[in-house]
Amino acid sequence: MQVNIVKLSDWRIPRKFIDVWMSSLAKQLKKHTKHDVTKSEITVAIVDATKIKQLNRDFRSKTKVTDILSFSGFEESELGELVICGEILDQQAADHELSINEELGYLLVHGVLHLLGYEHEKGGQAEKEMFELQDHIFEVLRHKHC
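Given the sequence above, the corresponding structure tokens read:
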């Protein structure tokens, strides 16, 4: 998986961690789902709270700061773009008693699953399926890379 990283805030980006995590994530997705994203391109953008709130309002009509937004790609080779708020990531890492890399990894798994069509907002079986897969993949990668 080719990962493009865009820094749009002062948040320190662990580039090497993201590259290694995303490569391992692609392998786990191939193993546990029908999705082969190993040759896909993805952009990870790190923004501040003001920017993610604006994007959340503009694209989801929600007027609050969020941790991550997922945007599908336009070309067949583009998986899409993940926009992550560094400030919220830091806060959630502390709240969840995780390292910054662990919280970042969790958000990356979550966002990629959304890009692949997994959903949780309507609840039910789809939510259960997404979170079970997300948690399984996260734990595998966490033990390997964190």
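The chain has one domain: 2-145. Try to locate this feature in the token string yourself.
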